[in-house]
Amino acid sequence: MSEHKNIYRTIKDPLGNNLLHLAGRMEPPDKLNRISGAALQIQRELQWFKEVEGFLCSLNIMQKNSSGETPQMVFTREHKKLVIEGEKWMKTTAKSYTITAALITTIVFAAAIIVPGGNNQDNGFPVFTNDHAFTIFAVLDVVSLFTSVTSLLIFLSILMTRFAEKDFLFKLPTK
Question: Whole-angstrom Cα distance, residue 118 to residue 132?
Fold first, then answer.
């Protein structure tokens, strides 16, 4: 593209669409369905749009076509349904994982409270205090409690997210 790079940056179709207007259109279903999950599909569409946006001059980013739409407006219009589907997909997935994380947190918390072998009646310390396996159990139980509570909070934060179009690019997939 080295020789034709400047031509591609400025070329328009008969309707006044530049390259970014065309990148803002929805991909055909056969190509889009290769990626499972609407949230990941909208992420890919956003990645492609941002890649083309970085290729063009800054004037072309705000340029309107013959319908009076900027490339961002075309992208938003074309992907409105996919964003709604992505939100539903993320919420359904997060709800399922939230229930699982809550159950795991409950079990791990119960294991942390109930000491294996019981307590010594004389001093109140656990019977297996000097056993290395008990120490390993206690440390791993604390680690699993921390990670399960963290995952529970992450899934709850996904449920509370606003699900804006731009959030599907970085914010939601990293969670």
Answer: 16
Determine contact, residues 23/145, Cβ cutoff 8 Å: no
Verify that 49 and 105 share a domain, yes or no. Answer: no
Residues 6+ apart with CB under 8 A from 115: 126, 127
Q: Is 139 left (phi over 0), alpha (psi -120 to 50) or beta?
A: alpha
Number of domains in the chain: 2
pTM: 0.73
Instruction: Name the DSSP letter for residue 119.
Output: B
* 124 & 168 share domain: yes
Rounded Cα–Cα distance for residues 46 and 68 (Å): 22
Q: Which residue has the tokens 């890649």?
A: 51
Q: Are 72 and 119 contained in the same domain?
A: no
Q: What is the pLDDT of residues 51-67, one digit of tens each?
A: 888 888 778 888 888 89
User: 31: burial class by Cβ within 10 Å (0-12, 13-18, 19+)?
Assistant: exposed
